[in-house]
Amino acid sequence: MRPGAAAPRYAVGLYRVSTAEQGQSGLGLEAQAASVRAFAASQGWFLVAEYSDIASGKDDRRPGFQAALTRCRQLGAVLVAARLDRITRRAHTLSQLLEDGVSIRAADMPGADDLMMRVYAAMAQKERELIAERTRAALAAAKARGRLLGGDRGYRPAAGPDAAAAALARRETAERAAHRLVLEVERLRAEGVEGQAAMARALNERGVPTPQGRGAWTHTTVARVMARSGGA
Fold it and tell me: Which domain of life is it from (predicted)?
């Protein structure tokens, strides 16, 4: 680095979809990743790690979210998501993170600073509260008019649960998770880390969640991820 030059800024990407959002256009993990990578590059930041969750944004215990925070604190990195609600849907969680010194940015709000992030999060939470209030009022009005709400309305599906379709959905979810983990493995290779045992150590040091989201990486876990993707 030349004298007087600013130190490089590190960034950690965080991607999230809920179970219901997985098939919706524009909300996929791949689309979020592309948005964050482009944003980080435009800011001149080094994207050192990426994490993802398939869970509600109201769940602050998500393994990818927690691993991303750990990485940010280790490196003093900025936490970047495609949209603010991909990080959390809780305004108080966001405010606490900012109070704790975690810098947060969203690719769809490139000019927003920490103060603006707090304002946007508070506004989003208020809007969700208003929507919930309007929904409750509408349901109460419908009930007052004698409309049947909930319960058994006599509907029966034409067919029972499709076990084959459920198995296919589980397999596709596992394959997507494996693909994301293979990106981590390939990044390690590019950094000169070779051998499954060495990769396992590096993944543990970087706080990357295992495919099950619990436990530690081992050379066997690395081998399974690579085999699933055809990268063994």
Answer: Bacteria
Spell out a b/e string for 15-26, using b for 16 or more CB atoms within 10 Å of the CB, else e.
bbbbeeeeeeee
CATH number at residue 115: 3.40.50.1390
* Joined tokens for residue 112: 């927003």
Q: Which domain holds residue 219?
A: 167-229
Same domain, 198 and 98: no
* pTM check: above 0.85: no
Task: Mark whether 35 is an active-site residue.
Answer: no
Q: Are residues 172 and 82 in the same domain?
A: no
Cα-based distances in Å from 186 to 41, 121, 210, 212, 219: 19, 35, 16, 20, 15
Q: What are the tens digits of pLDDT across the range 119-165?
A: 766 776 666 677 767 777 777 777 777 766 655 555 555 555 566 66
- Active-site choice (18, 56, 95, 229): 18
